[in-house]
Amino acid sequence: MESYTQQMNFFGNTNPDELLKKYGSPLYVYNEDILRRQMKRVAGILTSHRFTSNFSIKTNSNLTILRMALEEGLNADAMSPGEIFALKKAGFPSERIFFVPNNVSEEEMQYAIDEGVILSVDSLSQLEMFGRLCPGGRLSVRLNPGVGAGHHEKVVTAGKKTKFGVAAQDIPKVLELAKKYDLHIVGLNQHIGSLFMDFQPYLDAVSNFLHYAEDFPELEFVDFGGGFGTPYHKLEGEAEFDMESFKVAFDHLLTEWKNKTGRDVLFKMEPGRYIVAEGGVLLGRVYAVKENFGHRYVGTDIGMNVLIRPELYDSWHDVEIYRDGKPLISSEKEVYSVVGNICESGDIVAKDRELPIVKENDVAVVLDAGAYGFSMSSNYNNRLRPAEVLIDHDGNDRLIRRRDTFEDLMRNFDV
Ligand code: LLP
Questions:
Q1: Which domain holds residue 300?
Q2: Number of domains in the chain
Q3: Which residues lie below 8 Å from residue 71, measured CB to CB, with a gap of 6+?
Q4: Pocket around ligand 1: residues whose beta carbon is below 6 Å from it?
Q5: Which of 270, 295, 321 is the last residue in one of the domains?
Q6: pLDDT per residue over 185-229, tens digit each?
Q7: 351 and 230, same structural domain?
Q8: What pTM, to 2 d.p., does this model score?
Q9: What is the pLDDT of residues 284-310, one digit of tens each?
């Protein structure tokens, strides 16, 4: 029997043990073939309409991965000037970047304007700010249609209880302000939330959104946002997002709208997780195994500073155990919590999991860590953020970001 990572040949010509010896532990490892497969899938979602897929760089801002996205024909969306900066460094031209910020300062907005990057505003205040900075300018408006979706309340980004977007009922005020500053609203965008496996709510949101589009005569594009899910419970057989059926239904809906309204706009999407989650795993070394008051713990260096999703959203990540370079597959199992090395009792990456009998020096492989993994990591407890390594198409490993050093922790103090 093979493990999931073995089936995928995730580690190419090497294995988790060798990788940790070579690059240090913990370690993010990406597989180029899986990343490119997903990039190709999103690039080709719509073939019979004008369409672009943005890569949402908040999921993963490693320069090598950004360059891959560029090569695969993706555009990108950024949430902050720092993300625009990284995209430009990776080689994205301004016209392939869409800035979708929230509550930015004048300086930050001006940065995007100066870089020639089109942006969306997500409140009347920010619309007015844009009008003052760039009268006569072109922009997009992020609408909040009043309904959202997502895997946890913290990732629902539309609906009556979130800070995002201009409430759809304020469209008349948007049009008034646009007139006041002679602005051209050339785009409308939304993002209802993150991680759905059933695409019907997304399609409902798309068709609802298209009604609003009819109020904007100068529209050049409509951006429906991201949120496409990843099967995080794959070891229990969870199926992947059904992209083929989604494509058919999505295409049909857009064709109907175009036929009905006679409008021809560029359609955009902003998937993030779907592109990079499965192409990344997080490796950590087991340094302690213990039983406390009847609970078994696997003590690793995968702290919440390295992967915070389980602590922040109770997110599930499957875990495999490797020993001496090979996956440990045994019918004899115990229930363990896999924990990190951070000074918090909530520092639990995987709670109460059935795993083969774990020993010190084994390697824990946390699956589906390519999205919102490294990008949300921190130096809490003055821990070093890990290195990132790519397994390329030929199965060879290559460092794509070095690990932090102690000097990095001190860098901003030499003032
Ligand atoms: N576009 C916008 C405007 C967004 O706010 C987001 C995510 C995306 C696109 C990409 O969404 P995706 O396709 O990756 O679901 N840290 C959380 C997710 C936060 C999502 C924030 N916005 C997590 O780890 O689950």
A1: 4-29+278-410
A2: 2
A3: none
A4: 56, 59, 77, 100, 155, 157, 191, 194-195, 225-228, 270-274, 309, 313, 372
A5: 270
A6: 999 999 988 889 999 999 999 999 999 999 999 999 999 999 999
A7: no
A8: 0.97
A9: 999 999 999 999 999 999 999 999 999
